[in-house]
Inverse folding.
């Protein structure tokens, strides 16, 4: 049985304030943050479709907003968020099949997700910038 | 007086018992995730291919039947997955009455927004004037 | 000595030699209730004749004083002290401050009593070398627990959660005359799960249990749940799954895997929980 103290409640020992950030927890919270960020992007996707449906003027206004450099930086971050969530999600699907749970596999798949996300982000932007210039 | 601390440890831990649910949510999150892998990759590749193209070229692509079907599937999968994911995020961090309101607002958005998006995709496909 | 610079951690006893962040970049008392915030305590200098000195920052809480927890710094004479973190704690208790309170028993990693947070990770004080710690070594009680005194956490709730998975053999078939037989491969299915010593390093290191520990059972209890689900002699799998299948009890596990990273026995609670989820899926389809 619980001993009921008659004085003040017991303090809660620190958790996130002291726990060492590890690849496990950092990638998990990253998957969550990118998921929320991509949810905001999904709202933008609907806005973009509506602008396209309304006609050339609305569409070019929307394209103008997207073309502004602060929005371009946000889009670069969103691209990275997309690939991190995509690769991290595939890693989770593998875990759901009860594979890849050895620590060595957890860490190597984790770093692979980070590396793949950086490379895919760079490749995407390189391709879209070069195609945009050629076409 | 904090009445909670007079509960027995087992009473606190068992709470209202098992909901005997949660699998459907977990499973749907995985199904939509699997569907979104090809759909989002297709969408990203299309965006790369059309960066810098003008409105006519863009509409020609966006109004094609294949694009419309894939776009509708993307919107459905995306917002379904998003509703499931955001539900867990809200349940994790928001407690008390605020949780109910946050879940309500999130669910309304995740039902309303894809409908708007699908209407827009259809009106591009059929060349009708825009729904909004 | 398992201090490492490697990016790939291969076993849970490896300690990073240096880390980019020792803690998450958030305010030190972020989200902490007023009575739980940790204040700066006092310094306890080493004896004057000590030559090899190492500092330990240790969480202190005295329920008899109406004061907040504090962080004391102790200087330990390494030449007068055994090699493990537990030795340092015992040295402090016998030479410097007899009121320093902690649990310990076996001093060889089989009882689980001295589980605490060392340099930001949960581990047993008796199996962590002082040489593996940072300077100053940061010693806190197990994370996210109600604290009785100093490094002694109140484990009532996590043991109640352990009790909820009914960690005993359940069988309706009349007990046999002699032992219940098992195929060797069925016995092998328990390996990696039955060895749990209930130190609760994993549950205390699980962020999902930090935020929803009142309803999420946590990795330690769920590993035990799997240990009985996978036991070929047990006949209650259906009832066990009924009690587990819940958005919070089981599915609040988001496969963060801090549990597997921290287990001092090298067990794999994350994998056990994935096995339970797979079993539930199997039952549904």
């Amino acid at each position: 049985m619980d001993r009921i103290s008659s004085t003040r409640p017991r303090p809660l020992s620190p958790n996130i304030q002291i726990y060492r950030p590890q690849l496990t927890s950092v990638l998990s919270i990253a998957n969550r943050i990118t998921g929320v960020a991509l949810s905001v992007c999904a709202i933008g996707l609907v806005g973009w479709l509506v602008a396209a449906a309304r006609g050339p003027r609305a569409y070019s206004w929307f394209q103008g907003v997207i073309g502004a450099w602060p929005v371009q930086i946000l889009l670069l971050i969103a691209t990275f968020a997309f690939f991190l969530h995509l690769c991290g999600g595939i890693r989770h699907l593998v875990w759901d099949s009860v594979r890849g749970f050895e620590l060595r596999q957890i860490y190597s798949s984790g770093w692979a997700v980070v590396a793949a996300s950086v490379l895919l982000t760079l490749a995407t932007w390189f391709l879209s910038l070069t195609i945009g210039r050629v076409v | 007086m904090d009445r909670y601390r007079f509960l027995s440890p087992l009473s606190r831990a068992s709470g209202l018992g098992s909901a005997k649910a949660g699998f459907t949510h977990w499973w749907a999150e995985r199904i939509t995730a699997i569907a979104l892998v090809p759909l989002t990759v297709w969408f990203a590749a299309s965006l790369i291919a059309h960066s810098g193209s003008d409105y006519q070229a863009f509409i020609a692509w966006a109004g094609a039947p294949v694009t419309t079907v894939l776009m509708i599937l993307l919107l459905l999968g995306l917002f379904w997955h998003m509703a499931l994911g955001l539900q867990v995020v809200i349940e994790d961090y928001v407690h008390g009455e605020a949780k109910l309101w946050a879940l309500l607002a999130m669910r309304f958005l995740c039902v309303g927004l894809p409908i708007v998006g699908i209407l827009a995709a259809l009106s591009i496909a059929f060349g009708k004037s825009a729904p909004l | 000595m398992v201090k490492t610079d490697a990016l790939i951690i291969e076993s849970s006893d490896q300690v990073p030699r240096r880390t980019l962040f020792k803690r998450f970049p958030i305010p030190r008392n972020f989200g902490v209730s007023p009575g739980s915030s940790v204040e700066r305590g006092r310094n306890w200098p080493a004896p004057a004749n000590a030559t090899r000195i190492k500092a330990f920052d240790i969480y202190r809480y005295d329920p008899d004083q109406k004061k907040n927890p504090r962080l004391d710094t102790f200087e330990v004479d390494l030449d007068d002290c055994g090699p493990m973190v537990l030795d340092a704690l015992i040295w402090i208790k016998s030479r410097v401050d007899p009121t320093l309170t902690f649990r310990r028993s076996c001093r060889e990693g089989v009882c689980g009593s001295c589980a605490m947070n060392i340099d930001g990770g949960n581990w047993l004080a008796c199996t962590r070398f002082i040489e593996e710690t940072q300077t100053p070594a940061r010693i806190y009680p197990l994370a996210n627990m109600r604290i009785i005194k100093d490094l002694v956490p109140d484990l009532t709730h996590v043991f109640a959660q352990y009790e909820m998975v009914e960690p005993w053999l359940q069988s309706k078939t009349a007990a046999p005359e002699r032992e219940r037989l098992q195929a060797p491969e069925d016995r092998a299915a328990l390996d990696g799960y039955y060895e749990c010593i209930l130190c609760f390093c994993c549950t205390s290191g699980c962020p999902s249990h930090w935020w929803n520990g009142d309803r999420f059972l946590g990795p330690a209890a769920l590993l035990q749940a799997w240990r009985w689900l996978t036991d070929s002699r047990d006949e209650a799998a259906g009832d066990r799954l009924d009690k587990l299948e819940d958005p919070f009890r089981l599915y609040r596990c988001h496969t963060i895997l801090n549990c597997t990273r921290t287990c001092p026995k090298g067990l794999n609670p994350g994998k056990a929980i994935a096995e339970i989820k797979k079993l539930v899926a199997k039952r549904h389809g």
Chain C has nine helices and ten strands.
